[in-house]
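We now fix the convention by which a protein and its fold are recorded. These numbers are not coordinates but entries in a learned vocabulary of local backbone shapes. A record is reproduced here so that you can trace the correspondence yourselves:
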Amino acid sequence: MKDANFIELVEKYQKGICTDSEKMMVENWLDSLASDENEFREFSGEEKLALKGKMQQAIKQKIALNRSARVIPFYRRVQFLRIAAILALAIGLGFYAGPFGRDIFNLKNETLLLTSNGITQKVILSDGSIIWLKGKSTLSYPEEFLDKNREVSLNGEALFEVAKDPSHPFIIHSGGFVTRVLGTSFNIRKIGKKMEVVVFTGKVTVSGLNSPHPLVLLPEEKAVFISGNTSVNKEIYHEKNEYLAGTEYNMNFEDSRMEDILSKIESKFDVKVKVEDPKILNCLITADFTDQSLQKTFELLCQALNGRFEIEGNTVKLQAEGCE
């Protein structure tokens, strides 16, 4: 059951119009929240944090619904207070109970990734976007992007290579700031109340709670925001190596052997490349595949080698005439 369906079910429960089976489902879940504390222990910290945000969103939706109502009968208030109190308790604990609760809040499509000890960790999202999560940073994202917008949340620092999809904007929530792109590469660094956005390719817009207008950033531009301050410092940067450290963002090759190029492609995109004719592995290639998707990378390669390719899951089959 999705979040919206659960909210609708709770609304029916409050109005006293749900079926006996629906009423039993809600009350059994509420009772499990309040009484069976042992069930809480089976969930990971990532699931607890993910659920906390979903519960808070659900309660906000419920509050909005009830604010718009003119009259709430007393018995419905009792039911609402019971629901709100138990949900508030669950949020305070940071978790929920039972398989029904897991299905209600759709945690199967919610993932929380945490890096530690200063190690850069790569994440490939369902749309093909690559995120390099740095240091002790946290990234929250869905297993699949099902809505019009592709939205993630970041706390810390990450380098983004966003897959191009004009019909589905990519939005990053970081502190009180929102970064919106269509397909580009950039770095976000948030330390305390300070957030820094550096653009490598494409165009990025950044807005904050106190910002009167979104700020547009182009390649080689950098913006620094201070939470609670409406002023923004925008400048040109000249050295981006510090932002690329620990990532495989740079895919620029000059007279490089095909074997080495394919090895880097395999490492970056987590794929296995199968070559029909091993002779092409000795070909020397000069090309820049930086900020290109897996599909685009092989399109460019095949143009140089007069070849063709096929992507099947995590395997790429490459056929080419060679470089002679």
Observations:
- The helical segments are 3-15, 20-35, 45-67, 74-93, 98-104, 241-244, 258-269, 294-305.
- The first strand starts at residue 111 and ends at 114.
- Residues 205 and 216 are 4 Å apart (CA to CA).
